[in-house]
User: Fold this.
Amino acid sequence: MNYRHSFHAGNFADLVKHALLLWLLERGQADGPLTVIDTHAGAGLYDLTGDAARSKEAEAGIMRLMAATGRPRLIEALATAVAQLNPEGGAALYPGSPLLAAQGLRDDDRYVGFELNPPILDLLTKALAPYPEAAAEGGDGYDQAVAWAAEATGPLVLIDPPFEQPDDYVRAADTGAAIVRADARATVAIWTPLKDLETFDGFLRRLDQAGAQRVLVVEARLRPLTDPMRMNGCAVVILNPPAGAEAAAREICGWVVDTLGETGARADVWFT
Assistant:
């Protein structure tokens, strides 16, 4: 599955991932200076009149969120971040995880995002330029994340690959498990698509085999998992989740599923 960030920007999966990321950032900062490591950062900022307009996924995602009333607090936090980029209203611009993280950094916090594609790395560097605490780096995000996490104390690591490579599930699981084995204070959030249960169950088994413990599984299924050729939902798997993560995930996924889901949609939050 090729999950190109620009094509899917602002879709339902981004709402789950980014609302939860904002909560994890807020929670992590409560414990002191925070280092955020992003293995597959992408461009950082997306024009929803480009690739995303062709996919129409943003229309069914962030556009509906911005038009909704009675949003819960953790969904409202994402709406506020999007509104700041679009002072004239709407959601023509959408922030990726690098920009969402960078905008909330304090002087003693740090963010580093990795990107292999040189043109996308240039866009990421430009998006992060106004934020001195944030940096864009080239290179393999899996390997770099382990090295950077070893130099930090209790980092927050986001693993969000495009699933272009056949070993992305394996490397994501092994990288996350290696980081939390080395530092029990680290938190790792791994995003995956949900197409079929066999693939996802295999990913969870790999995490277990790699020695990951205290794993919170956050699932948002917009439709039953009956067509493995479609992204029927998404999951965020959190290793070493901080206190309150389960409740935060239920608030976010519950709203997304109730608001955007089709018949048979469901939100599941559980510990392995």
